[in-house]
Amino acid sequence: MKNILITGFTPFDGESINPSYESIKNLDDTIMNFQIIKKEIDTSFSQSHLQLLAYIKTYQPVAVILIGQAGGAKHLRIERVAINIQDASIPDNKGYKPVDQYVIKSAPNAYFSTFPYHEIVENLIDEGIPSSLSYSAGSYVCNHLLFHLLHYLKTTNQNIPAGFIHVPYIFSQVKDKKDVYATDLETLTKAMNIMLHTVIKELL
Question: Where are the alpha helices (DSSP H) in the chain?
Fold first, then answer.
C-alpha cells in the first residue's frame, strides 16, 4: 500500500490547540487503498524540517501535504508559493525569531507547490467550504517548512504532489478574540478529506 503523508503543527503563540493538526488526526487511516500517515510537527524553525524529512525518508510517501494555522483568515488558503525568506513577527516554540534570513542560502528565491491546487479550491467551494488560492505562505514556520519540502523534492528528483494549506481558527480559539473569524473542526476535517480525494485522483 502506498503512503500519503499529511502533517499539522503543534500549538504556538500561547494557543492550547492548533486546528491544523486537529483537522487531520481523525482522518481515516486508509483512503482508496492509500495509507494516510498523519504526523504533528513542532512549530520551530530548527526542528520542523528535520522532523518532516525524517518522516519522508521513513514512509516514502507518494504525496506530501502540509497543513498550518492562519489565525484571522476567513477561508482555507491553498498555497502556491514558498519563498526563500524567514522573517518572524513572533518567536517560534523554541524562542527563535529570525529577521530577514534565507531559509536555505544556496537555494532559489522561490518554489511552487506541485499538488492540484486549482482542483482542490474548486472541489472545496463546490462543497460549500470557503477557499481560495494564496500566493504567499508568509515568512514564518509554515513557509519555512514548505520551502524545505519543495527544495528536498526538487534536489532529490522526486516528482510527487506536494503543497500547503492554511486553515482558520476553530471556534474554541476565538472565545476571547473580538471579531475574529472561526469555523468548526468538522468542516476542516471534511475539507481535508476532500483535498485528499482530489490529490489521490491525480495519483491514480
Answer: 19-22, 48-59, 117-126, 141-155, 185-203
Residues 6+ apart with CB under 8 A from 31: 4, 193, 196, 197, 200
Known catalytic membership, residue 166:
yes
Of the residues 22, 75, 79, 148, which is catalytic? 79
Instruction: List beta partners, residue 131.
Output: 76
pLDDT tens sequence for the chain (204 residues): 999 999 999 999 999 999 999 999 999 999 999 999 999 999 999 999 999 999 999 999 999 999 999 999 999 999 999 999 999 999 999 999 999 999 999 999 999 999 999 999 999 999 999 999 999 999 999 999 999 999 999 999 999 999 999 999 999 999 888 889 999 999 999 999 999 999 999 999
Taking the C-alpha atoms of residue 132 and residue 79, their distance in angstroms, rounded to an integer, is 9
Residue 151 annotated in active site: no
Is 79 catalytic? The answer is: yes
CATH 3.30.565.10 is right for the domain spanning 2-203? no
Q: Could you tell me the residue ranges of all domains in the chain?
A: 2-203
